[in-house]
Amino acid sequence: MMSSIDWWIIVIGALCASACALPGTLLVLRKMSLMGDAISHTVLPGIAIAFLVTGSRDPFSMFVGAIVIGVLTALFVHAIQKYGKVEIGASIGIVFTVLFALGLILIRQALDHVHMDPDCVLYGSIEFAYFEQDSLFGYMVPRSFIVNGTMLIVNAVLIVLFYKEFKIASFDQALAQSQGFRPELMHYVLMTMTAVTAVAAFESVGSILVVAMFIVPPATAYLLTDRYWMLIVVALIVACLSSFLGHLGAITIPLWFGFNGTVTSGAMAVAAGLLFLLAWICSPRHGLVVLIVNRIIVRLKILREDVLGVLWRLEEREQPVLMQRNLQDLLRSNHLMFAMAMMSLKRSGAVQSDDGAIKLTTEGRNQATSIVRTHRLWEVYLDKHFPQDTHQLHHAASRLEHVTTDAMQEELGTATHDPHGSEVPKVEDE
Amino acid sequence: MIATHTLSDVRITLPTWDELLRVLLLEEYNTRVVVLGVMALGLASGLIGTFLVLRKRALTADALSHATLPGIVIAFMCMVAMGGDGKSLAGLLTGAFVFGCIGVLLIIAIRSTTRLKDDAAIGIVLSVLFGLGICLLRLATDLPSGNSAGLSGFIFGKAASMIASDTYMMVGLALFVAISTGLLFKEFSVLCFDASFGSSQGWPILLLDTVLMLLVAIVTVIALQTVGLVLAVALLIIPAASSRFWTSSVKRMLISAAIIGLLSGWLGAVVSAVIPRVPTGPIIVMICGFWFLLSLVFGTDSGVLKRQVQRVRLNRKIELQHLLRAMFELVEERESEDIPMHEILAKRSWSLSQVNAIVKRAQQLGFLNRTGNSMVRFTELGNSESKRMVRNHRLWEVYLINYADIAPSHVDRDADMIEHVLGKEMVRQLELLLAQDEIIDSPHPLGGSAS
Q1: Residue B17 has pLDDT above 80, yes or no
Q2: How far is residue A200's CA from residue A126's CA, in Å, rounded to a whole number?
Q3: pTM above the 0.80 mark?
Q4: Which residue in A44, A338, B91, B447 has the most C-beta neighbors within 10 A?
């Protein structure tokens, strides 16, 4: 199903995405992703101006043109932000739209009757990359393979060489400055890296989709790991996977619906987006699932403690026992959460149900005593140190009781009565 | 993509005077349609863009406009599937609007549930949805029925293909946005300047943010046809950012942003009509950029020139005050009215030419006279002025020694920094606090350079 040309496309895509992912990790960490966006847009006028000046499509002069404009973009954004007191987002928006517009006009003026496909600006021409070959150590290989491969190596060398400098400048600007690491210089090294990489990637993935290669793999990695070198490794894996899945998707999925296949670079961006989505949902430490499960666990713990507290107070006032239903109404809890809380309480043997009436067991009573003790000691403490309306004491204490450890409880003092006059229960030592 | 080409092939055919006049006066039907639509767009985007920029959401709008691409193509495919030719502009724009809003929601979701910041969220949504749009666009061109040729025009804009009914819709939407912005003026101002204060006062901040983004989405959708989705954000940001240099009142900012938007639209449409091969969208953006550059440099509120002039003035004032104080201290030390220049020179770290220039200025202001042989002497005016200066300096020194526990040997430098900005009111308070009203002695030994 996959021909050798397809494999070449995947390899070129992977090289391109990986080359972008390396400076991308720094862009994301330094919260400058959108500088990557701006610079990748301004590659277009760079190429157009180089063409106008030299009158040829010599790759070297286009490289130089794009790099110069890329670094100028960074300088302009900085200057407008500094001298015009314009917020960074707006100054990025101003610089890249104006330069991109300039690029479009130049292309229309100069290259209109030349074969410069405007679509190429949008999504490159990775599908045809195989057919433009060059020799490398005597073997004929696609030219983009050489370009993007070189870019990957150069970026990797730069990151390894300046690993410490980049790391310190990204995580703590002030520290970097005080240690003589010159964060300003690192900023412009990174901007130059971004510009050069964007030019190299331009032919493969176009001016706009290169943003996806810069930002999405590192952002995905950022959700999965906390270490910088791990971040680089994961970003590279995501980059390669997006290329593979993207091209595979582009040539297979549309066929299921009777189409002829679609644009590989676009599909690479979508694949990267889907990998990001996966990490977003499933990341073991920062994922949505973990986030939601943690939230439910906390809510369950609080609900369990509330149930015990209510049952204890009912016993204290010698009020009749409640049915499960009434208890739920009393706590204004939702049905599912309440059912789960009751189930876990019963299984741990803290409460027992007597024909539907809920009662504390001895074990449960001990736990409940401790909770109520904490609650009332907090009320005493708050009343003493932060005098306020006694009604509000209860609310504050109701929150604090759930986050109080045993050690904290001991520090709260040994008062015998709370500000409302109720007795502070003592936990029986066994 | 291969070509050899020289500069000589790049030429611009300039229009004749008659042609220019015809376009400027909107005599041609086609031009009239385009110019009207573009001007309406400029007006609406200038207005709502002001609040967008003040709310610091400029690039969220960029992501929004890129996210419209899959919406346009999906709307097209749906319309074709339902048997039409998929050309209904209203249908396409509805798709664009829906996806623009989805894009913004995704940004908010990423920002609030992950540890990624705004920039990464915007970048991800922008590039991935645009990639999706590109993929779908290729599929749409494969559809046997329907005319998908016009779809890619939304990417870079295709003002030339606008017809009257399109323009009426654009003008209608633009007026709606303009009127809504006017009606919500107070609400949006609260949102932009102090959202947390607003929410504590019971303003529905979240709702207002949503309304703002909805209006931005409408403007973006109008802009798709003329400037295209890549550059749509320029019309929102640039007029607003430019008008900030001319005024600091929101009302005037709105008016001038609307005017800049309107003018750029009109000029852009005219230029692209008279000069061949100049696409409308990019030229409008370039003209906006030109206004921005003008405003950045010449803006009367916070332009670079204005601020530079202010800084030079302030520096001159400070230099003058330094000179007066240095001379006063020398008069105190030497108990003689005539001060030799070289002693003034030794007082601070300044060069002879600097001192000469300052002395010259002080002379023009009537603070001192040269008494031959490079000696200077205070005039009556200079005497009282320098007394005031020295008073401020020493009051502040005494204050710092008494209340901030700064050593007398260090206090001179600190007082040096602040003395120039002490207002009358502050001096009076210092007097009250320190119960001093006549000229006081320096709390530290004088003499030497920058003691």
Answers
A1: no
A2: 12
A3: yes
A4: A44
B324 and B270 both lie in a single domain: no
* Average predicted confidence (pLDDT) for chain B: 84
B30 and B104 belong to one structural domain? yes
Q: Give the pLDDT confidence of B361-406 residue by residue, as tens digits.
A: 888 888 888 877 778 888 888 888 888 888 888 888 888 888 888 8
Paired sense of beta strands A357-360 and B339-340, if any: unpaired
Sequence letter at residue A367:
Q
The answer to whether residue B99 is domain-embedded is yes
CB interface of A with B, residues 150-179, below 8 Å: none
Candidates B60, B111, B134: best to mutate against A (most CBs of A within 10 A) is: B134
Residue A12's nearest CA partner among A142, A141, A110, A145 is A145
Rounded to 10 degrees, the C-alpha dihedral B81/B87/B93/B98 comes to 10
Pairing mode of beta strands A351-354, A357-360: antiparallel
Q: Which among B136, B231, B241 has CB closest to A86?
A: B241
Q: Where are the domains of chain A?
A: 4-284, 291-411
Q: Which domain holds residue B41?
A: 26-300
Burial of A160 (0-12, 13-18, 19+ CB in 10 A): exposed
Please return the burial class of A164, using the count of CB atoms within 10 Å of its CB with bins 0-12, 13-18 and 19+.
exposed
Pair A18, A152: CB distance under 8 Å:
yes
Does B153 lie in the same domain as B65?
yes
Q: What percent of chain A has pLDDT over 70?
A: 96
Distance separating alpha carbons of residues B159 and B39, to the nearest angstrom: 12
**Fold of domain A291-411:** Arc Repressor Mutant, subunit A (1.10.10)
Same structural domain, B142 and B60: yes
Residue B4, Ramachandran bin (φ over 0: left; ψ between -120 and 50: alpha; else beta): beta
**Mean pLDDT score, A360-380:** 88
- Of the CATH numbers 1.10.600.10, 1.20.1250.10, 1.10.3470.10, 1.10.10.10, which one belongs to the domain with range A4-284? 1.10.3470.10
Number of domains in chain B: 2
Interchain proximity B124–A219, CB inside 8 Å: yes
Distance from C-alpha of A90 to C-alpha of B2, rounded to nearest angstrom: 36
Residues 364-403 of A with CB under 8 A from B: none
Cβ partners under 8 Å of residue B37, min gap 6: B159, B162, B166, B167, B170, B171, B225, B226
pLDDT of B229-272, one tens digit each? 888 899 999 999 999 999 989 999 999 999 999 999 989 888 88
Q: Are residues B117 and B221 both part of a single domain?
A: yes
Q: Judged by CB atoms within 8 Å, which residues 5-44 of A form the interface with B?
A: 28, 31-34, 36-37, 41
CA distance B271 to B183: 34
Distance from the Cα of B164 to chain A's closest Cα (Å) equals 26
Between A263 and B148, name the one with better pLDDT: A263
Whether the predicted pLDDT of B146 surpasses 70: no
A124 or A37: which carries more pLDDT confidence? A37
